[in-house]
Amino acid sequence: MAADPREAPDKGRPEVRKHPSMTVRVLLLIAGTLCLALAVLGVFTPVLPTTPFVLLAAACYARASTRFHRMLLDNRVFGPIVREWERHRSIPRRVKALAIGMMATTLSISVIFFVEPAWLKGALVALGFVLGFWMYRIPSRDAVAGTSASRGGPG
Predict the structure, then answer these.
(1) How far does Cα 150 stand from its chain's mean position?
(2) Using N-to-C axis directions, what is the helix angle for 50-64 and 79-88, rounded to 10°?
(3) 53: which residues sit within 8 A by CB, 6+ positions away?
(4) Domain locations in the chain?
């Protein structure tokens, strides 16, 4: 195959190292696709977090298929999150705030209007706090990079 012209701008992109076993690559491809399906489902449901499933899918694809990994990186919705994670092991602060806010909103609506058993309400609230705290603890590179410079203040 000819070299992909899109390779040049992304020299900082981590190298895709396929697993030597074809069986393992097929299993990783299946697992990555399942994780990506859960991520898409997580966009519409309060309990499934989208970002961790996208990152897990990217990890599976990185060991299974250069083509699938590239497709995920080039996706306009999920690509920036995956690239940020692969390059800096962080999630953009905006994405993190949106994820926590959407999760809190949808879980609150579910608990208030749709869930009746008290034990299930408690379980959803506890799950929401655990997931929110976990997401909050993931580093944000833009938060660390200097907030005064990003606001236009003296650096």
Answers:
(1) 24
(2) 70
(3) 35, 36, 38, 39, 42
(4) 20-144
